[in-house]
Amino acid sequence: MIEMHNIVIIDDHSLFLKGLEGLIQEEFPKSTIHCFESIDDCCKVFQNFDLIQLLISDIELPNENVFEFFKCVKKSHKNLPILVITMHKKLSVIRKCKRLNINGYLLKDDDDLLHEALKEILLGKTYYSSRIEKLYRLYAKQLNTLSPREEDVSKMIGLGLSNKEIADKLFISIETVKTHKRNIKRKLGLSEHSDLIRYANEHFLI
Hints:
It is a single chain. By secondary structure, the chain is α/β, with parallel strands linked by helices. The protein has 2 domains: 2-131, Response regulator (Rossmann fold, 3-Layer(aba) Sandwich), CATH 3.40.50.2300; 141-204, Winged helix-like DNA-binding domain superfamily/Winged helix DNA-binding domain (Arc Repressor Mutant, subunit A, Orthogonal Bundle), CATH 1.10.10.10. The protein is 53% helix and 12% strand. The chain is built from 10 helices and 6 strands. It has helices spanning 14-27, 39-45, 66-76, 91-99, 114-122, 130-143, 148-158, 163-170, 174-188, 193-204; strands spanning 6-10, 32-36, 54-57, 82-86, 104-107, 127-128. A 6-stranded parallel sheet has the order 2-1-3-4-5-6. The longest helix is centred in the C-terminal third of the chain and has 15 residues, at 174-188. The chain is elongated, with a radius of gyration of 20 Å.
């Protein structure tokens, strides 16, 4: 039963961390919950996760690479379920989580879904909130129209690179970069360059 499980929570916002701990403890009073504000603090206590049945983490922690941490955890403890609870709705983040087989994904205001998510994930199932799944399908449908090269250009636009910088990195001409930009805007239904920058930043970058 979930009440007997050891659960690790990592989040750098102490108020949210304590609130989440309280919600889980209230619903499952026999759970043992370990709270940390950083991956480093967590790893100082747990050199491995053999005794942990669930890892809950935000996706963005100061000065730490959360995705690399997830990769390491999944590599050494492939059966350990991971639940992401975050404010991020970006396609790039959701896609990375799906590629890493992250078991669950909630937004931080999905508190009414927490109990159900925990139960499903600890039963070996996946649980991405309906809002996240809807966003993922919507974004994926739009971005599936882009070619791999157009996606590369979009990422660089989001990073703020100039046409010349993009051309140099991709070994193409500046005119080709401009053509890619026109095609991207047409496919995504965008008109202004500022819209393209905002879209690229929101959907391609963490």
